[in-house]
Known about the structure:
- The structure is a homodimer of 302-residue chains.
- Chain A has 302 residues and is of the alpha+beta class.
- Chain A has 2 domains: 20-145, CATH 3.30.1330.10; 149-293, Phosphoribosyl-aminoimidazole Synthetase, Chain A, domain 2 (Alpha-Beta Complex).
- In chain A, 32% of the residues lie in helices and 28% in strands.
- Chain A contains 8 helices and 13 strands.
- In chain A, strands 8-10-7-11-9-12-13 form a 7-stranded mixed sheet, sandwiched between helices.
- In chain A, helix 2 packs parallel to helix 3 (100-116).
- Chain A starts with a helix and ends in a 9-residue tail after the last strand.
- Chains A and B meet through helix 1, strand 3, strand 4, helix 3 and strand 5 of A and helix 1, strand 3, strand 4, helix 3 and strand 5 of B.
Amino acid sequence: MILKNIGEFGLIERIAKHVKAGKGVIKGIxxxxxxxxxxxxxxxxxxxxxxxxxEHFKRAVAPSAIGWKALCCGISDIAAMGGVPKWAxxxxxxxxxxxxxxxxxxxxxxxxxxxxxxxxxxGGDTNASRKMILDVTVFGEVKKENLVLRSGAKPGxxxxxxxxxGGSVYGKHLNFTPRLKEAQVLVKNFKVNSMIDISDGLSxxxxxxxxxxxxxxxxxxxxxxxSKRARTIENALSDGEDFELLFTMPAKEALRxxxxxxxxxxxxxxxxxxxxxxxxxxxxxxxxxxxxxxQAKGFTHF
Amino acid sequence: MILKNIGEFGLIERIAKHVKAGKGVIKGIxxxxxxxxxxxxxxxxxxxxxxxxxEHFKRAVAPSAIGWKALCCGISDIAAMGGVPKWAxxxxxxxxxxxxxxxxxxxxxxxxxxxxxxxxxxGGDTNASRKMILDVTVFGEVKKENLVLRSGAKPGxxxxxxxxxGGSVYGKHLNFTPRLKEAQVLVKNFKVNSMIDISDGLSxxxxxxxxxxxxxxxxxxxxxxxSKRARTIENALSDGEDFELLFTMPAKEALRxxxxxxxxxxxxxxxxxxxxxxxxxxxxxxxxxxxxxxQAKGFTHF
Lengths: 302, 302
């Protein structure tokens, strides 16, 4: 049996079996970040994301965009927990014959993202490698009352997304803005029951929330905000790397959000569905009221 | 100009220019770990180490040893700061056609090291990659009074190493034991002025201490404890990945250590030289009293 046969999530399940929750671990494998015991008021958040040449980007891409993306993936994870990023470690594998000017631009992209989102780069590792590799660990902190997990969705919650979805492969996946500001506004003003950043694709990431929350969902196809670059609804459902926020909140909070959203946000915040009990499973409803199964078809690595 | 021309340390210098020390950063780039503000009594330590197939190991190697090493590199870094490891994130790039059994063994090796040294694996990332990549972030804590940096060596300090050096390429580099216990005994019982783990090689890692401490050193060639696998003194001076501790302490403390070392340690702890002022530079003295320059000839990646 090879990795391709069990897939990414099969692999993660196997890994989780080797791992025992230990001291000071509030939430280990299974969310956007690990949540670790920190101070009386706050938890420490930690996440890591690897980008590999020819798997995630081509060398022809602007090197500053590679650096920007490498750091912003982790910032997006921290945001989706309700936290703010603080520090980062940059681990790099770089070809010996890569030009110094190219490498400078990668690090300039990293530094730009660091400055924009208030992150200090505090260390890392450098190695020779045939393909470029950038693996970035981001640490953040979250006030205990602001922590949002994937596992908190409850039947009756309304489901929301920020921005618009699909077609990020045409450029947004390299130049996206992590929704840090929006996530902070959300957790400071509302009771958010569950949240995730859309990295694998709407259907898959909603699947992560449902699995962790032991819940089902009804999503209204015609409410999903399709980006200009999305050709079909399938793009909005399954394309990875939108890095928008997907979140759920109780109906009462949701009504407050719908009322205030134009004042609070500079971007669309759209209701796309409802959380239901687990036994209802996950359905996509079209404009004629026809239901079909909403299957996780987003990006997986294997 | 390409990376090969500026070398690993040239690259790190360039990277450091992009980086500004920020809030809560006690020590950023330039030591075994980043040191970050935590509580009144302790600091957070964080370090990351990347292993790449065919750069650091061959696929034919026992996969459990790859996992063991991937975690132990970071544990060794935490130990060398006077800290104890707590949590780890495992970021992996794995070929799609790798057998699940092989991957299980890698994670079993990681889990074995985690259990042995009290580390909880709290998250990570998994990606498809043509070559295997394991990038492990380790977090630890250090009591403020136990923190040891590379930069604290003072003229008059005696220089010590644990264990024996050289020839780790014949096996030890995969199965080494991080000197966590020994480092803890040191920082709890003595005033240690500077410490590093020997990963690049004795001459290079002593060079890191001297550079950060703005000091020189006299090392007595005939005092260096050569391992059985080291053929010449050059192996003991320049082979990387011994993962022994190299440290300096004031003469008075050193005398106490020499007196007590048999009771406190189960392995050799050997005095190999003396820290001198910067202008004396770094000299190696042979058994006839002849001096030659001690140049950093250890492992570099580019």
